[in-house]
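Hi support team,

I submitted a single chain yesterday and got back a structure, but I'm not sure I'm reading the token output correctly. Could someone confirm the output below corresponds to the sequence I sent? I've pasted both exactly as they appear in my results page.

Thanks,
R.
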Amino acid sequence: AFQKWVNREISNFDYLIQLNTMAGRTYNDLAQYPVFPWILRDYTSEELDLNNPAVFRDLSKPIGVVNEKNAKAVKEKYNFEDPLGIIDKFHYGTHYSNAAGVMHYLIRVEPFTTLHIQLQSGRFDCADRQFHSIPATWQALMDNPNDVKELIPEFFYFPEFLENQNGFNLGQLQISKEVVNDVVLPKWAHSPEDFIYKHRKALESEYVSAHLHEWIDLIFGYKQRGPAAVEALNVFY
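Hi R., thanks for writing in. Yes, this is the structure output for that exact sequence:
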């Protein structure tokens, strides 16, 4: 698969799916669900210019430190000594892929809606914590070094998960009183289908093709543990 990918005989999407499968990740286990990278950082422009490197996320850094401002807090957390010496050092107390995160993204489609309600003891979590906007989700990642969720493959092929087709009552945001319904899209996307089309195009773009291996090193490769992981600020609890 690697050679085929290098020769561009298979797409970036297919290569990531194959890597996830080889790593034992599967759609059948929410705790080991396939993980895909955030690849863009421009969720505010009217048009998305895939020829401009500035619209892409830095794939060489874990999502928690893509915003340079967070690096200091992350290093401090790692250097904090556990007085009992029981806990290994870590940069992040949560993970880039977990069951709650998968349910968070897929709350509008079954069976994930029901699973989410079960997890929240029989009701929807409060509206402010729901996945309600792609630009807001990215902004929260940039502002908060403790939020390190990467994406799931659905962001590249499944427009339905961005629509509240079942008419679930997901509540209202506290401050703006906005009702949480369909997911708010970046300005450059005119519909869920348009978002998926452009996002997939971004995944297959020249920039991502040239840099995707840097992210793969963090998630599936040699920067997962040991000194390389420490240096890359990539140690998870």
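A quick pointer for reading it: The chain has a mean pLDDT of 93. Let us know if anything else looks off.

Best,
Support desk
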